[in-house]
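User: Run a structure prediction on this.
Assistant: Running it now.
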Amino acid sequence: MSQQTPTADSVPRTNGMPMLGLGTWQNDDASECADSVETALEMGYRHVDTAQAYGNEDAVGDGLAAADVDREDIFLATKVWNANLAAEDVHATTEGSLDDLGVDAVDLLYVHWPAGAYDAEATLGAFDELYDEGKIHNVGVSNFEPHHVEEAMEILDAPVFANQVEIHPFLQQEELRA
């Protein structure tokens, strides 16, 4: 029996984001990271998640470039680290992320945590500017509690696309899911 590679239209999605994605946290060997991204994409994955704090955006970019998959078929997400959440740092480090990833824009840019240099008005204002410039297609938050999400929704002009949080049988986060 032959196996067919999924097409962009056949990958299950929620609001345009493929439901299954390749996370690259702790994938810090550059060659292995690039190989895993390339292999996952060629096997049918269409969502890749990385972050500035992972230290592997350049390797993820190498894997994206090596894969025989059109960029428009890949949903690419990254996160701005806590120390980089001042408005001017959001812009500068996002440009660095785009360069490392080898792309003109990411499909989803997250605030990694509402901590460190995070100032809701300034940080989210910078995200709105990147959204308006077309450098990011969606704004996301990560590790936000309900009150942080509500605040972000009030401040942002762009919609909050996703809140990436840890959920598993030992940490069910019922209030947050609601």
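Residues 87-101 form the longest helix (15 residues).
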